[in-house]
Structure formats: structure tokens, C-alpha cells
């Protein structure tokens, strides 16, 4: 790149765009009449789409300069900040894949809000752009202090998105989300301070090669786990997620499930395994047990839900259990499967929340009992819903199958009972997803209000069709992802082995 700081440009472009939108709004505040004020939201949304779209293009440019054959960090930028704390950014296969997922989903989220967000639209766009900067920053940081700043800062815009534009119980859900994640991260902050004092640096590459004492590893691992377990989320600290999903606007649910949950799995792969290998081996049976409980228990809970969004929220907890299983398998199949599962789940769960949002915008209810017979009035919707239902179940030919089967293969190599428990979750996911689809799409229309319901419009199709294409593409050509992430997966395992 000839020294051009492309990662910094990509990371802070959304933040710069948000500042410009706020400055323009402040400058024109006194001269707006009612008509102009009414069109301000559309202008802000259009500006947000342009800025987030430009960020996606910059991320593609960064990816074009990334060499998958080199397993280490690339496109590195480093500037001394304070003593041995640096502003250091870089990417490997794991982080560049999650960056692309983030920059791809953000414009979709803003476009999906075109008709559903009608109040304080400018602030809504600003919140999303600021959130995008913090999410990208998490995946591009190569300094522990910088990572922690981005990791925690992301709570603020997400808290506002839920608390201002959410449903009737939005305040409760927003505070629950904020407190759960903040309290978990306070333990990580203590660990960050200890690691800096012990190693004399907060640089990832220094910390990866620093051998912490076995007793220290145990406590550091638990401190990081407290934060990542909430973020993932793992049972039993998952209860904030269904409330947050149900109350969040549709786009908020998409970015929450699509990106924010992935920070937990990313944290385990970036910190817990390579920096605390002895503690990771020590707690492997515990993590397997928690993964199986999450997969089986939350699948059963999902089956009994009457709210479509809450059902998909519990489904997310179950599917992220496969990520935990794969990560702590400590083999290539498991780690590669966990990374693939994170990317696949980001696409599929995001699409499912958009699917729910389509009918919610028309009927203003997410109760499953309010629907039935949608195939008669919305055939395009029914077809896309079927695709993502099958992908969520893990049907071969979709990306959902690849991630689940690889994590179970990796899990079986480490523990046959854990793989068996995860397999039960696959069966249960078929039960609750097919039940949801049958009750909402098939049968006769019994609710008179559904007789006037219209099929998906152009904006909704533009949001969902790309996700459908990626679900199929990655399902039939998974090497498109594996070729990017293989070097990073092997590097994590080598660091665990002391290589």
C-alpha cells in the first residue's frame, strides 16, 4: 500500500462520516422549515448508506492487498502512544474475514431501516456509523489497550440503538445488555493491567510469545472468559440476549447477532488459546460442557417460544455453542469450523431477523399465532424464509451445514460425548425452525388482516437477496473462506503448542 494507512482509513471513515452528518445538521438547524426537517432523515440515511458503502469498498481494497499465504499479521500500522502502549493495527485471516462481515452488514442494516425508522433518524444513522467504527476497531487492533477501548466503546452506540429505537421494554433490555457486558469486561480490564505490567508491553505479538506462569494463566483466562462468555453469549450468562433482540429494532438485531456476538469467539481465538494455552487445556472439559448445555438447552427453550424474534435469539445462543465447541477442540477442523460458523451465522441469523422484520413492519406483531398461510400472499417471502430456515437447520448445500459439521468433527476428535451432545442440538434446531416455518407460512390464512398483506418490496429484496446468495455460495464453495482463514487457524494452534 506504499505506506498508506488503509486500516485506519477503513476504521475511522464511518466515524468521520458521522461527525460530518452532525456538523451539517447543526449548521442547518436554524434555517430548516417543517418540510426540510421531514426530509432530513432520508438525507441522513442516504448519507449513511454512502459512507458505509464506501467503508465496504475500502475493506475490499484492504482484502485485495491481504496475502492468505502469509499466516502472520499484515497491513500493520504502528505509532507509539504512551510508553510501551502503541496505536497498532493489522489483520490476519481471522480478522479480515470478520471485518468484511462487518462492513458488508452495516449498509444492509441502514437500508433495512429506510421505512421502519421514522423518529430521530439522523441520530440513528450516526449511532450506527459510530458503532461500525468500534466494531472494525475490535478486529483490527493489535494492541491490548487499543482493543479494550474499541471493545468497550461499542457498548455505547448499541445501548442507544436499543434504548431509543427499541420496543416497549427497550429501557430494561438496554440496561440489561449494558450491565451484563460491562461487568464481564471489568474483569478483563484487571487482566489487561496485569499483563501489561508482567510483559512490559500490550503488543499482541509480544504477549503471544510471553510465557505467563501457569497459576497466572488460570486467573487471566478466567478474567477474559468472563467478558467473552457474556459477549458470545454462553449459558448461563446468555439471558440478556433474548431481551435485547426482542426490543431492538430490526437492524439492531441484525448487527447484534451478525457482528457483536462474534467478538466473544474472536476473543477466545485471539487471546485465550494463544496467550493462555495451559489454562485453555485445563478448562477444556468445562467449555465442552457449557457448549453442549448451550446447544441443547437453548434449543429446547427456542422450541417453546411464541415470539419469532425470541425464538431466533435463543437459536443464536445454540448456534454459538458450536463455535465454543470448535474453538476448544484444539484441532484444525474445530478451529476452522468455529471461524466458518461465526461467519455463516452472521449471515444466516442476520437474514432471519430481516425476515421477521418484513412481516413485523406490516403486522406490528411478532407472535407466531398471528400468522399462518403466508405462502398464499407472499410467495417470494416464503421462498427466502425457507432457504434461511434450511440454512439455520444445517442443510447440506448451505453455509450452515459446513460450520456445524466441522465443529462436530473437531469436537469428536477431542471428545466423543461433546460431539454427541452437539448432534442432538442439530436435531432440535430442525424441530423448532421447521415448526416456526410451518406455523407461519403453511396452512390456510386464519387472520383476516393477512388477506391484505403484500409481498416483499424492492428495498427488502435488496437487503436479503445478497445474504441468500452468500449462504448458498459458501455452502457449495467453503474454500472461499477456508483459504483465507487456514493460516490464522494453524497459527493459533501453533502458538498453543509453543511454536
Automatic annotation (TrEMBL):
<dbReference type="GO" id="GO:0016020">
    <property type="term" value="C:membrane"/>
</dbReference>
<protein>
    <submittedName>
        <fullName>NADH:ubiquinone oxidoreductase subunit M</fullName>
        <ecNumber>1.6.99.5</ecNumber>
    </submittedName>
</protein>
<feature type="transmembrane region" description="Helical">
    <location>
        <begin position="414"/>
        <end position="437"/>
    </location>
</feature>
<feature type="transmembrane region" description="Helical">
    <location>
        <begin position="177"/>
        <end position="199"/>
    </location>
</feature>
<comment type="similarity">
    <text>Belongs to the complex I subunit 4 family.</text>
</comment>
<feature type="transmembrane region" description="Helical">
    <location>
        <begin position="249"/>
        <end position="269"/>
    </location>
</feature>
<dbReference type="GO" id="GO:0048039">
    <property type="term" value="F:ubiquinone binding"/>
</dbReference>
<feature type="domain" description="NADH:ubiquinone oxidoreductase chain 4 N-terminal">
    <location>
        <begin position="82"/>
        <end position="135"/>
    </location>
</feature>
<feature type="transmembrane region" description="Helical">
    <location>
        <begin position="281"/>
        <end position="304"/>
    </location>
</feature>
<dbReference type="GO" id="GO:0008137">
    <property type="term" value="F:NADH dehydrogenase (ubiquinone) activity"/>
</dbReference>
<dbReference type="InterPro" id="IPR001750">
    <property type="entry name" value="ND/Mrp_TM"/>
</dbReference>
<feature type="transmembrane region" description="Helical">
    <location>
        <begin position="219"/>
        <end position="237"/>
    </location>
</feature>
<feature type="transmembrane region" description="Helical">
    <location>
        <begin position="458"/>
        <end position="481"/>
    </location>
</feature>
<dbReference type="Pfam" id="PF00361">
    <property type="entry name" value="Proton_antipo_M"/>
</dbReference>
<dbReference type="InterPro" id="IPR003918">
    <property type="entry name" value="NADH_UbQ_OxRdtase"/>
</dbReference>
<dbReference type="GO" id="GO:0012505">
    <property type="term" value="C:endomembrane system"/>
</dbReference>
<keyword id="KW-0560">Oxidoreductase</keyword>
<keyword id="KW-1133">Transmembrane helix</keyword>
<feature type="transmembrane region" description="Helical">
    <location>
        <begin position="342"/>
        <end position="360"/>
    </location>
</feature>
<keyword id="KW-1278">Translocase</keyword>
<feature type="transmembrane region" description="Helical">
    <location>
        <begin position="145"/>
        <end position="165"/>
    </location>
</feature>
<dbReference type="GO" id="GO:0042773">
    <property type="term" value="P:ATP synthesis coupled electron transport"/>
</dbReference>
<feature type="transmembrane region" description="Helical">
    <location>
        <begin position="380"/>
        <end position="402"/>
    </location>
</feature>
<keyword id="KW-0812">Transmembrane</keyword>
<dbReference type="InterPro" id="IPR010227">
    <property type="entry name" value="NADH_Q_OxRdtase_chainM/4"/>
</dbReference>
<feature type="transmembrane region" description="Helical">
    <location>
        <begin position="44"/>
        <end position="66"/>
    </location>
</feature>
<feature type="transmembrane region" description="Helical">
    <location>
        <begin position="121"/>
        <end position="139"/>
    </location>
</feature>
<dbReference type="GO" id="GO:0015990">
    <property type="term" value="P:electron transport coupled proton transport"/>
</dbReference>
<keyword id="KW-0830">Ubiquinone</keyword>
<dbReference type="GO" id="GO:0003954">
    <property type="term" value="F:NADH dehydrogenase activity"/>
</dbReference>
<feature type="transmembrane region" description="Helical">
    <location>
        <begin position="6"/>
        <end position="24"/>
    </location>
</feature>
<keyword id="KW-0472">Membrane</keyword>
<dbReference type="Pfam" id="PF01059">
    <property type="entry name" value="Oxidored_q5_N"/>
</dbReference>
<feature type="transmembrane region" description="Helical">
    <location>
        <begin position="94"/>
        <end position="114"/>
    </location>
</feature>
<feature type="transmembrane region" description="Helical">
    <location>
        <begin position="311"/>
        <end position="330"/>
    </location>
</feature>
<feature type="domain" description="NADH:quinone oxidoreductase/Mrp antiporter transmembrane">
    <location>
        <begin position="141"/>
        <end position="423"/>
    </location>
</feature>
<keyword id="KW-0520">NAD</keyword>
<dbReference type="InterPro" id="IPR000260">
    <property type="entry name" value="NADH4_N"/>
</dbReference>
Amino acid at each position: 500500500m506504499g505506506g498508506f494507512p488503509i486500516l485506519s482509513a477503513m476504521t475511522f471513515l464511518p466515524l468521520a462520516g458521522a461527525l460530518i452528518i452532525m456538523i451539517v445538521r447543526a449548521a442547518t438547524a436554524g434555517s430548516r422549515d417543517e418540510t426540510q426537517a421531514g426530509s432530513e432523515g432520508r438525507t441522513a440515511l442516504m448519507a449513511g448508506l454512502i459512507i458505509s458503502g464506501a467503508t465496504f469498498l475500502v475493506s475490499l481494497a484492504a482484502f485485495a492487498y491481504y496475502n492468505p499465504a502469509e499466516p502472520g499479521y499484515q497491513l500493520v500500522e504502528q505509532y507509539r502512544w504512551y510508553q510501551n502502549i502503541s496505536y497498532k493495527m493489522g489483520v490476519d485471516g481471522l480478522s479480515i474475514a470478520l471485518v468484511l462481515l462487518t462492513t458488508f452488514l452495516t449498509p444492509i442494516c441502514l437500508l433495512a431501516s429506510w421505512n421502519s425508522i421514522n423518529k430521530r433518524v439522523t441520530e440513528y444513522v450516526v449511532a450506527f456509523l459510530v458503532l461500525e467504527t468500534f466494531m472494525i476497531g475490535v478486529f483490527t487492533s493489535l494492541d491490548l489497550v487499543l482493543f479494550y477501548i474499541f471493545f468497550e466503546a461499542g457498548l455505547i452506540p448499541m445501548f442507544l440503538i436499543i434504548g431509543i429505537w427499541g420496543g416497549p421494554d427497550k429501557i430494561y433490555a438496554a440496561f440489561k445488555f449494558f450491565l451484563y457486558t460491562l461487568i464481564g469486561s471489568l474483569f478483563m480490564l484487571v487482566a489487561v493491567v496485569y499483563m501489561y505490567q508482567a510483559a512490559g508491553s500490550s503488543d499482541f505479538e509480544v504477549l503471544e510469545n510471553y510465557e505467563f506462569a501457569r497459576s497466572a494463566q488460570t486467573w487471566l483466562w478466567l478474567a477474559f472468559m468472563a467478558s467473552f462468555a457474556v459477549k458470545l453469549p454462553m449459558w448461563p450468562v446468555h439471558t440478556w440476549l433474548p431481551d435485547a433482540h426482542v426490543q431492538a429494532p430490526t437492524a439492531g438485531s441484525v448487527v447484534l447477532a451478525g457482528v457483536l456476538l462474534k467478538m466473544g469467539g474472536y476473543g477466545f481465538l485471539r487471546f485465550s488459546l494463544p496467550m493462555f494455552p495451559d489454562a485453555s487445556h485445563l478448562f477444556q472439559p468445562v467449555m465442552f460442557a457449557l457448549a453442549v448445555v448451550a446447544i441443547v438447552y437453548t434449543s429446547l427453550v427456542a422450541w417453546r417460544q411464541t415470539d419469532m424474534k425470541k425464538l431466533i435469539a435463543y437459536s443464536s445462543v445454540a448456534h454459538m455453542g458450536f463455535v465454543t465447541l470448535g474453538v476448544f477442540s484444539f484441532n484444525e477442523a474445530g478451529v476452522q469450523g468455529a471461524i466458518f460458523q461465526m461467519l455463516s451465522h452472521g449471515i444466516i441469523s442476520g437474514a432471519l431477523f430481516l425476515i421477521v422484520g418484513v412481516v413485523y413492519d406490516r403486522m406490528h406483531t411478532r407472535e407466531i399465532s398471528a400468522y399462518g398461510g403466508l405462502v398464499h400472499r407472499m410467495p417470494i417471502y416464503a421462498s427466502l424464509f425457507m432457504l434461511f430456515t434450511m440454512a439455520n437447520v444445517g442443510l447440506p448445500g448451505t453455509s450452515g451445514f459446513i460450520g456445524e459439521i466441522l465443529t462436530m468433527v473437531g469436537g469428536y476428535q477431542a471428545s466423543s460425548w461433546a460431539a454427541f451432545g452437539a448432534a442432538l442440538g442439530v436435531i432440535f434446531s430442525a424441530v423448532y425452525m421447521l415448526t416456526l416455518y410451518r406455523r407461519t407460512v403453511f396452512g390456510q390464512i386464519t387472520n383476516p388482516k393477512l388477506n391484505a398483506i403484500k409481498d416483499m418490496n424492492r428495498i427488502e429484496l435488496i437487503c436479503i437477496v445478497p445474504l441468500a446468495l452468500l449462504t448458498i455460495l459458501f455452502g457449495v464453495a467453503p474454500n472461499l473462506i477456508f483459504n483465507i482463514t487456514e493460516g490464522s487457524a494453524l497459527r493459533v494452534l501453533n502458538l498453543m503448542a509453543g511454536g
